User: What shape does this take?
Amino acid sequence: MGRYVNSGTIAVVAALSGVAFGAQSLMADGLSLTPVREKTVAKECAACHMLYPPALLPARSWSSIVANLNNHFGENASLDDATTKAIADYLVANADTGGIGAKLLRDLNPEVTPARITDLPWWKRKHEKRNRVGPAALAENGAKFKGDCKACHKGAEQGSFDDD
Ligand code: HEC
Ligand code: HEC
Assistant: This one.
């Protein structure tokens, strides 16, 4: 553990998610997004499910999610005000960053604020094909719900969706 102490936030986040960030530079083309590189988000937003790279949702979705943590998909995930603000600031600043992430937000009505990644039209089109996230596919991959991306995309928390 000691060797992480002096190497800053990135190493702490890497340690928390159990992966080496070096792997990211090995990725060629395909869909790769910047992973979470902030230790509060990495700690608080990966307690119940995978840590979602912020480019997976538009800024307005993150604002809404973080503003409603007291009723987060039926769970109380609320945090103190300072922590909540730090998380909102990071997710909003790193959302919707264009580039390859823009693919995910394709065809999304700007008036709509999706509560889930799995509500994005592009995501639904990709996954409804061949019943990719039907009950059988979820069970086969050990996915707890459709948003359990990393059950099927091993590199999901590192922002890699092209490894399978
Ligand atoms: C106390 C547990 C808990 C914590 C902590 C938590 N979540 Fe969740 N989250 C859930 C549950 C439960 C769901 C819905 C799972 C389902 O549909 O089966 C969910 C779903 C989500 C989804 C939707 C995924 C999809 O596309 O279906 C996002 C995005 C999300 N959480 C973000 C966050 C963020 C950001 C944080 C940190 C501020 C956070 N969560 C912390 C329990 C939690
Ligand atoms: C039950 C398994 C499963 C789950 C859960 C799942 N996916 Fe997928 N996903 C697939 C399959 C199968 C494909 C099509 C094959 C491929 O391109 O890897 C796919 C394709 C994709 C692609 C397109 C890759 C490309 O190059 O076209 C992206 C991006 C993606 N998924 C993101 C996600 C995200 C984000 C989540 C979580 C919110 C998620 N997936 C959850 C199985 C899953």
Remarks:
- The pocket of heme C (ligand 2) is lined by residues 30-31, 56, 117-118, 126-127, 132-133, 137-138, 141, 143, 146-149, 151-153, 161-162, 164 (CB under 6 Å).
- The chain has a mean pLDDT of 84.
- The helical segments are 2-5, 8-17, 39-44, 59-67, 81-94, 121-128, 135-141, 149-152.
- Residues 81-94 form the longest helix (14 residues).
